[in-house]
Amino acid sequence: PGAGPTAGDALARHDLVERLDFTGGTATGLNIQRSMAEAGRVRAFCAELGGNAPILVFADTRSVQEAVDGVAFASFVASGQTCVSGKRVLVQREIFHEFRERLTAKVEALRLGDPMAAETDLGPVISQTQLDRIEGQVSRAQAAGASVLCGGRRPGPERCALAGKGYFYEPTVLVGAGIDNPAFTEEIFGPVI
Predict the structure, then answer these.
(1) Average pLDDT of 126-138?
(2) Residue 2: pLDDT above 90?
(3) Which of 22, 39, 143, 188 has minimal CB crowding within 10 Å?
């Protein structure tokens, strides 16, 4: 028992633990691996360490709209809170403008609300802490040069009937995030691409 670092270290060193699976940041994954090695424990260890692999969209796509639909699903399913959510989208120059326009329209049409309701496309994020983290990451991305095409804020009641009653964040599309921008380098565990 205890906070993450304390409990994680104890699990990594414990004689009865046969395998560890971890999803989280790279630094924590390395700490777990180090604790296992220091304890002289060689065992199975699976780590999903904050991946941020891009979705690539090429000019020879069968359909730009089909690519937009796929990107929207990959990025916003579960409000972007899965380890395999799309977070970076790299689009070939020849179709960039069309893709951007279609993606913005698609994202602006997504419906926020009760995740159990059939008409809802996006529910809330998991907690106030995560909502604050998403807002901070978007703010840092903007400060580093990214622009918000749509979203980038908590929804008002006109966008979400449950606004103010949950941890909702509008699905967000950022552009202009260079390779040093936090939106490009950090995994944003929320509805932001």
Answers:
(1) 96
(2) no
(3) 143
